[in-house]
Amino acid sequence: VCSTWGNNHFKTFDGDFYQFPGFCEYNFASDCHSSYKEFSIHIQRALNSNNHPQIQYILLTIKDFTVYLRPKVPVVDGKIVKTPYYSSGLLIESNDIYTKVYAKSGLSLIWNQEDALMVELDSKFANSTCGLCGDYNGLQIYNEFINGGDYNSITYGNLQKINKPTAKCQDPDESQALPSCSEHRDECEQLLTSSAFTDCQVRLNLELYIQACMQDKCACKGEEDSFCLCSTISEFSRQCSHAGGRPGEWRTQSFC
């Protein structure tokens, strides 16, 4: 499973977490092993009216289909389609909260039509992917971020850009490392270890989500902005469910 959410967070197929704040179109995950690509997934983010990064669109090519997803509007081969849409091994479902795509070739995609996208691939694609989701070789860090010395997540992300002659977007500056953050640990730890998540702590690497939550809080300079807290907590809950866990009721009237 590879996912991206919230404040430009990414988790690769091999379980690396990193942040990459690019607003161009990028290769999120593609089959790069053979001359004939089974699939490719491109994404582009933009800032929404609250100045938070959201996924503007997803461009998915599966065999000979081209699927263009915008919030609530799936377009297949240039035509807007009604969901559920089914055609030769491709199923698209959509409701007010999620858009889901399942391909018989071994791919499923779930997008919350805002900031969070999760892609699950069949193990037959192991060692053959490229893009922001990494190479799916089962080894963390190797082949993604170590490549002759100093190779950070911004450099890595910029390499995944889809070059379009008409695109007007700036590459994030590779010399500007994302600020590290050591504050807000107590608050993030408290949220992620609450009783609602008892079933999740054994299934996921808690520390990585605590770090992501701390980065969110620092980026929002401690303001009580729901996006800064809720996006990583939501992702933790989604990943927990996906790993077979049962998160309890953690949302309240006043929180998220």
Describe the structure.
This is MUC2 protein. Keywords: Disulfide bond, Glycoprotein. InterPro entries: Mucin_vWF_Thrombospondin_sf, VWF/SSPO/ZAN-like_Cys-rich_dom, VWF_type-D. One of its GO terms (cellular component) is extracellular matrix. There is one protein chain. The protein has 256 residues and is α+β, with helices and mostly antiparallel strands. It has two domains: 2-159, Protein Transport Mog1p, Chain A; 182-243. The chain has helices at 153-158, 185-192, 206-219, 226-242, and strands at residues 2-5, 9-11, 17-19, 25-31, 39-47, 53-62, 65-70, 73-76, 79-80, 85-87, 90-94, 99-103, 107-111, 117-121, 129-130. A hairpin with a 2-residue loop joins strand 10 (85-87) and strand 11. Helix 2 packs across helix 3 and helix 3 (206-219) packs antiparallel against helix 4 (226-242). 36% of the residues are buried. The mean pLDDT is 91.
List the helices and strands and how they pair.
Blueprint: E1 2-5, E2 9-11, E3 17-19, E4 25-31, E5 39-47, E6 53-62, E7 65-70, E8 73-76, E9 79-80, E10 85-87, E11 90-94, E12 99-103, E13 107-111, E14 117-121, E15 129-130, H1 153-158, H2 185-192, H3 206-219, H4 226-242
Antiparallel strand pairs: 1-2, 1-14, 2-3, 4-5, 4-15, 5-6, 6-7, 7-8, 8-9, 10-11, 11-12, 12-13, 13-14
Helix pairs in contact: 2-3, 3-4
